[in-house]
Amino acid sequence: MGTGKRDQKAKRNEQWVKGTAVLRDSFVPAKVKAANLAAVDDRWVLRNRYLNGASPSDMNLVIAHLAKTFIPQVPCTCSSPLASGNSNSSSMTTPPSRHSHGAQYYSPMPTHTVPLDLTFALRDDATTTTAIQRPYFAADLDETTSIAEYASTFRSALRLEHEELMRLYEKYSLMHWQLSRFNDKCAVIHYVGICDARPSLQISDIVLLRPKRPVAGQTVDHYGRLVPAPYTIEIETRILSIVRGYRNQADQIIIDWDLTPQQVQALNDPSWGRGYSMRFIPASTVLERSLTALDWLEHSSLVQRNELETLLFPVSAPVVKPLTRAQMRIMDNSDGVDRQLNELQSSFVRMVRARTLDPSFGSIRPPMILTGPAGTGKTKTLICAIVDVLGLLQRDEQRQANTNRVLICCPSHAASDVLTRRLSGYLKQSEIFRLYDASRHSNTVPDYILPFTCQSPGTGAFSLPSPTTWKGFRAVICTCMDAHILFRANITNHCIRAKRDCFRSYLLPENNTLGVSFGNVTLSEEIFFTHLFIDESAQATEPEILCPISCVVDTQPGGRKVEIALIGDPRQLSPRVYANKVGDTLGRSLMERLLRRPVTCMGGGEQSLLGPKNDSRDDVESITDLIRYYAKIDGQEQLTIFLTKNYRGHPSFLMMPSSFFYYDRLTSAKATDSVSHNYWCEMLRKVEALSRPVSCPVAPDASVAFSVSESLSQIYRQSTWPIHFRGVRGKDSSVGLAYISGTESWQNIPEAEAVAAIVSTLIIGGVAPKQIGVMSPFRGQVMDIRNRLRKLGFYDVNVGTIENYQAVEQDVIVLSLTRTNADFVDHDVQRRMGIFRQPKQSNVAMTRAENLFIVVGDPSCMWKDPCWRQWLMFCYRNGLWFGSGPKEWDEGIASNPLEGVNYVSTLDPTMKVDEGGTNSIAVVSTIEKVLRIHSA
Prior knowledge:
Layout: H1 3-18, H2 30-37, E1 42-45, H3 56-69, H4 103-106, H5 147-169, E2 174-177, E3 180-181, E4 186-191, E5 206-211, E6 218-220, E7 226-228, E8 233-243, E9 251-256, H6 261-267, E10 276-281, H7 285-301, H8 305-312, H9 343-357, E11 368-371, H10 378-389, H11 396-401, E12 406-410, H12 413-423, E13 432-434, H13 467-470, E14 475-479, H14 483-488, H15 493-507, E15 531-534, H16 542-552, E16 563-568, H17 590-596, H18 600-603, H19 623-626, E17 632-633, E18 636-637, E19 640-642, E20 645-646, H20 655-661, E21 667-668, H21 674-688, E22 723-727, E23 732-734, E24 746-748, H22 749-764, E25 772-776, H23 779-791, E26 798-801, E27 810-816, H24 825-830, H25 839-846, E28 849-857, H26 859-863, H27 866-877, E29 881-883, H28 887-890, E30 902-904, E31 921-923, H29 926-935
Parallel strand pairs: 1-8, 11-16, 11-19, 12-14, 12-15, 13-14, 15-16, 20-21, 22-28, 22-29, 25-26, 25-27, 27-28, 30-31
Antiparallel strand pairs: 2-10, 3-4, 4-9, 5-8, 5-10, 6-7, 8-9, 17-18, 23-24
Helix pairs in contact: 5-7, 7-16, 9-10, 22-23
């Protein structure tokens, strides 16, 4: 074959690999699509019910009742424009009419509902993401200060995201599937791998079932006789619960199956075999609640537009009175919680305290921001700030006089439960309320959380407490989305203030025409929620964060304004989105957008707190001028604090993350226990014995000690650093055909075998299975590793994706990178999955371990990623690389990776990284330099 033909064939093969079916969008077969779009004679909509027997209407009744009775119901006589129900007008042209305090008036905006389009995902123009016909105009959120543009952008993005979810859910369609009974009211669908699907099914998602044959029925003929009349039906029900299969069993989807006797009789006809065609439709709860928050934003902006613009688009720093020496102390003769904190952590507590003691009565201040890497004590600092705000360490009389009340929200239930547990050590049980939606079953809630919840006596479903109970709550904790329940129940600063004004006006003698006496009734002038703290805020979308903000913002002039704080790390995982077009809107949190704004109050006039836009390092002169994580005004921190002291894991774990993601500013503050450290080093020797140290074409000279100024082409063995890299030349393969997890499910059998061997060695050596965590960026690999470990009897080993390990730490972390084909990395980046060229994913993966960090991956694929190439160089120069080297070494294409390399002691902002496979710069962090010198 000639050279030209060989080149053409190679080009065709390359095009086939990049366009292979496993990388294309999933599709619904024509036969399934035709069956799902066919007309039906009847639709059975089963009663929307929860697994605990309650109905959503039960929660709605509680919300409606609470909205009316939170403050006694009286005829309204005040002349406020809000009291007339016309809050859009600035003045009244007619006298106010008396009205009762009903939910219709006190809901600032009606709850948004989205009509259900069950055929959208099956239409020909909606089979791929690129086929979206409707225009999508997104404003530049970094530049705009218009609430109208802001709301319009997110409204369009939310709809695109929901439509993409509908398309992705279609790949779970099933033909001729059987149901099994769970009980008289529920049925079960057995589905392999559904718990590891992406996106995963959620409670309240819709399930559409069509019997494969018409069901039996009867009709009256023209003679008046009953004759058989089969007819086609579609059953619409909802998911009540999802249970992961145990010991290789299929996962279970429990659905509502509350049929009438007539429906049961029709379905029991044995003639049609009881086979179903099934479709899954995502619930619109997130979309509806987010759209409602955006409607509230636009509605409220008509009253006080400037206040909300100050909150969302800050342009100047707030003016706060400095704390006096007496105010610097929390309680007499003690520094209180300040003794537990370092300088930067105490700075955030003082910032919150200064705002609390000098509240704003004019306009809403920009949010306070606490950010920092994993292990720097963000949650501990948050707890101390809440304790300080509530005066929990003050004397009894001072604590009783404290009227502050906080609303604490997180994107996830797990993070909310953690805060509930930690606050329970400071607050009484009656002072904490953990809010759950009624759709959540009590069996899924930890036992230690249940005492802080409210459950209906009859059904056990989660509900809302009575109005008399709310006054005793000091802290209300919920997810950002569940804060919408407070909004519907009118438990917001705006509604409570408006009702209080009406009630106070009614008590005046000239208005109390009925002569009703309420005795010595006193109404506090304080706002209900004085503070809003949002933890893990970097993982929440902006519309999601607007849900709790709508509960605390009161734009009434002259009243006390709420103080808002955002806590999280924008350099870790971002909000999870699936539509490619909305990555710059929904895929970026409010915290990250605020830190990106080039404003005085956020970055002291510099480009931003997160560095140059898009992390371009070409336009700055030095690392000093590149980034400032917190601003000081007159020596007092006013807005942002970045934590730099890390208390998690061995200092060697911070070397590469500090340089890659935090501009080499992290320091280790963990006290090393020599006994424990020696134990984990002994476990590391057992793992190292499974393979050989990597061999290189150029033999290094290990006699030269480390120095940044010297050549680093020699290996300097670090036997006390609990890090291990195992090079494995495997092959990634798609499992989309074997499971329903989708085309993004990949597995690597050689890596899975290596991980199983490493975990077995550790457990045999004495490590408890629950101390070990295994992670992979792909769900297919997670499933494979989990099955292998279960076959070995290791059921307590935590195996999950990188997203599952956000805000989680383990003694041992074993990371399987899985990907070996660099041609697929572009596809991974487009779908926001994998770990290569995904800095936030890499950051989370590198910062989860406490005592031992093990990475298993293909060196050739890693070498083509700038971040992981630096990590390989780090492992090589410290003697931590075992197993296989890049295949280029065997082929003679590459030699010693450290020969002829230039070194920098930090991440130089002007350095150029060649992504083609060669590199002329190696990053050496400050922590590595210090530890190497001390160990020399």
